Amino acid sequence: MLLQQTARMNSRWWRRRLAAALSAAALGVGLLAGCGSDPADKADRKSDGTAPAAAGTFPVTVDHAFGSTKVAKAPRRVVSVGYTDDQAVLALGTKPVGMVDQYPNPPGTSPDVNTQWPWVKDKWGDTRPEVVMSNGDTGPNYEKIAALRPDLIIAVYSEIDQAAYDKLSKIAPTVGRTKAEKEPFSAPWQDNAVHIAKALGQEAKGAELVKGIEDKLDAAKKAHPEFANQTAVALSWYKDAAAPFTSTDVRGRLVTGTGFTYQTEIDKIAGGKFYTTLSPERMDLIDVDRIFVINDKADTEALKKFELFANLPAVKNGKVSYLLDSEGPAVGAAMSQGTLLSLPYAIDELVKSVGQV
């Protein structure tokens, strides 16, 4: 999908992820073709230098979808190839030198929006990682990654295939998505977090951070027992259609995590994917008690004008939480990222949104 040269493209990273997930384009490689300026030097100039590795236990061996990877010692130069893996790495005390541009900036915009979310801004500080892939690309920029001289590559929340993994692992030890994950983006956020933590020698710390978020979800359930009696769904307006997320997607898991009962009929027609688009005759699938809409303003207004949506009882009764994606408080982005850093923010804002409508 071509990157749109408008400010609105910030709000569409998950759409680009849809396109990338459905793309059959082969992943190209220009591994050590003429490098020009050294991105590693550039990354260090933008930051306070290579950050000390966070304390951990090594060596560790991580089993994943593409095999096993041994990490001999604490990595100092981590490149994140998964869309949100950088946030798990940050949460565990290491600043990646390379990352994916989840929400591509409009031309000339600085600093990168992906380092400025409310839940990551303080963690990044003045560090400006090198962008090694933008959402919608058919694959990472192998030349850039190689020039960054990584000692570990994390590709967990990612749709890379075996061929891409093989190319990355020639550059540095690479950890792919979890072994149990049948489809990209389908693993529970907890599994992804602990998986990445293990690669950093901090499996116990990762489990501790996960427990903190699960405790926060449990607290929300206890504070709002009325949620358990309500059916719910999370969706976006995508290509002129309502596109609900499945119960196993991170957005669906967050909705159920706070106590709501998800509309699991969506899972059956999604065919293992993390979302589906509804034909007009299947709008009954989102006839639920509570709807969470994740879009920015323009798409939200388009959805509101869609008659079949406007006629749903939940809409007529004002039981819809319209959650801005990258605009405003960026609640949708926090939900969509579903990381150790974004989830505490997302939980608070999700619960708050229910009380406002």
TrEMBL record:
Cellular component per GO, a single term: outer membrane-bounded periplasmic space
SUPFAM superfamilies xref list: Helical backbone' metal receptor
Signal sequence residues: 1-33
InterPro entries associated with the record: ABC_transptr_periplasmic_BD (IPR002491), Bact_iron-sidero_bind (IPR051313)
Cell compartments where the protein resides: Cell envelope
Keyword DNA repair tagged: no
Domain Fe/B12 periplasmic-binding: 77-357
Location, primary (coarse class): other
Keywords: Signal, Transport
Entry keyword annotation includes Glycoprotein: no
Any one of the GO BP annotations: iron coordination entity transport
Family the entry assigns: Belongs to the bacterial solute-binding protein 8 family.
Full protein name: Iron siderophore-binding protein
Taxonomic source organism: Streptomyces subrutilus
